[in-house]
Amino acid sequence: MAEQALPVEKGVTAPAGESTFMRLAKYTLMRTVVLFFTVVAGVYVTVIIANMGGYVDEIRRGEIRENISIAVMNNPAYKSYTLEQKRELIEELSRLEEKRLGLDKPFLVRSFFFLRNALTLRLGFAQRMVSDAGSRQVRLIILERLPTTLLLFGTADLLLFFSSVFIALILSRQYGSFWDRVFVALSPTSAAPGWFYGIFLILVFASWLRILPFGDLVDVPPPETPVLYALSVLKHLILPTMAIIIGAIFVSVYSWRTFFLIYSSEDYVELARAKGLSDRTIERRYILRPTLPTIITNFALLVISLWTGAPILETVFNWPGLGRTLFQAIGLFDVPVIVGSTVIFAYLLAITVFLLDILYAIVDPRVRIGGGGGR
Amino acid sequence: MKNGNVLQVEDLYLYFATKRGVVQAVDGVNLALPRSSAMVILGESGCGKSSLARAILRLLPRNVHTYAGRILLDGQDVMALDEDSFRENVRWVRVSMVPQAAMNALNPVIRVGDQVAEPAIVHLGVTKEEAWEMARRMFRYVGVPEGFLNRYPFELSGGMRQRVAIAMALVTSPSLIILDEPTSALDVLTQANIMNTLKRIKQETGTSYILITHDIATSSDLAEHVAVMYAGQIVEVSNAAAFFSEPLHPYSQKLMASVPRLHGDKELEFIPGRPPSLLNPPTGCRFASRCPLRFGKCDQDPPTFRLGERLVKCWLFEADAELAYPDTTSAHPSEQRR
User: Fold this and answer.
1) Which of A36, A152, A302, A366 has the fewest other C-beta atoms within 10 Å?
2) Does B63 touch chain A (CB under 8 A)?
3) pLDDT tens digits, residue range A7-33?
4) The model's pTM
5) In sequence order, what are the beta bridge partners of B227?
6) Residue B43, Cβ density class (10 Å: 0-12 exposed, 13-18 middle, ≥19 buried)
7) Are B319 and B263 members of one domain?
């Protein structure tokens, strides 16, 4: 290395690297590609499972043959046909019907058609469910419900993140204090999902105190003006949001406070104190900033687990979102809606992970610039 | 006389409270460092060297049991300052520090330029641009290419990070820099290089150093003064030339005998036994149990004797020396304070 030979290296500059923006763009592209393949794989597995690995096709072929056989046998027009001719006719009609439905192609080929349709949101028609606007298109049923789900989980996730970081920072400052021990002691409560606490919240605030609604998105009938409508939604949002937060906050505060404590014992924090920086600066730049990547990773996992709780939570609160739609579809055995909801959830998970990845790259130069730890 | 010293430490005590008892990490240390000079503090691992550095900068952990004594910087007693004025007027303004193996001394998510410029912004009240200009000058000075200002610590090699840490310590031009084993994790070439850089800085800026190390070889040509620390106490203070040719304290002699020499086939010596625990140090001389020259009087705590310019804490020199601190001999902080 040059530095070993020359004590003073005048005029030597660091090799010009790519600009930070280019690196970030490259990183983003890479993440997009990886996540896209993840989604494709996830949806394809869903397609295979929903079709029982192609066995559903066998069932449908059998059904077609049976129906046609019955129809031909019972049709008086074919009474003069010999058994052999009837059999040929049945074969011919079954073949045509299978061709019409695309069943003549092997399942492997068809599975890729399913995959393409699912990924491009050509989700087909529901068997039983209807959208609020009256459409049978799975895509419309789902898109109608998506905003309410995003509203609920977006609000809850953001509140959860900021309140957890805030409380965790305070607790790390007073490690071992009363409140610190309270949060540590309560962290196992996060083992129960949010909807479990939702039931108690409904009992207390809706049934007993009667200050908040039991569920639903808005009052019935919905308020006329947009402002009142928004306020009504806000009122209905309180309990489900609280349920999600209560179900996750103790463990996130506990683990994040521990991250803060670990990172506060780093050498650079002590050096920052030696540098005479104020406690606030040290906390912000030398404890919070280096810890953020770890926290974001932890939060990404948490958000994913929250998404998976959506069907039950939304059902408990009668929240007209995607989760409840999936729950209803399972109850009604409406396969296209089940597959469609799963596809949308796969996309939502991927988008969540993608956004957090980008955030991660913004807060952690080691990811953004690449080259890894290098310690 | 005191104003001639950039640093004067008097009766400094730093004890930590642990579950197993009180750790006497710094136990009645007296030191004086003249302006524009360097002192190396030698000692084994765990003898309290780093705690001494922390005590001077008041970087105390939460479990401090006793923190007492006087620390005079340019003649001013900084122990009397409250936390805020100490932070604003002493840390990095008068005393800065290069931490042990700067691998983790730099914040991984902030550009090194920002980290070097930061003390200048905070303490000198300059704008960000001016502070970056100062940082750039310091980078050139310690031999790191300017382009690296915009880089993150993980993009730098170990030697470069150490140079950045030195640049950071220099940026506010403090009168004293404490170097806590600045080269211990680096390869010998880089070590030598950093030592040369430090020497050049000392000659050109007149900064004083306290160099804490257990590496006698690399320190020998930087420091004019040597202090030997054993079990939380300073057992010998001397000028470097005299010390390296003829150490006084039996521990210093053993320490020097353990340094490999290029010439001569003398077998390296080691000191039998282990340094005493700082938890419950023995009464009397703390080195007594390992000392080849011990005699009856070693059961009592030896005072520090003055031999000309040199100080030594050993009964062997009672006959031909005078007491260095006649008024403060056996004052123990447990009777004294807190």
Assistant:
1) A36
2) no
3) 444 444 444 456 777 878 888 888 889
4) 0.79
5) B41, B237
6) buried
7) yes
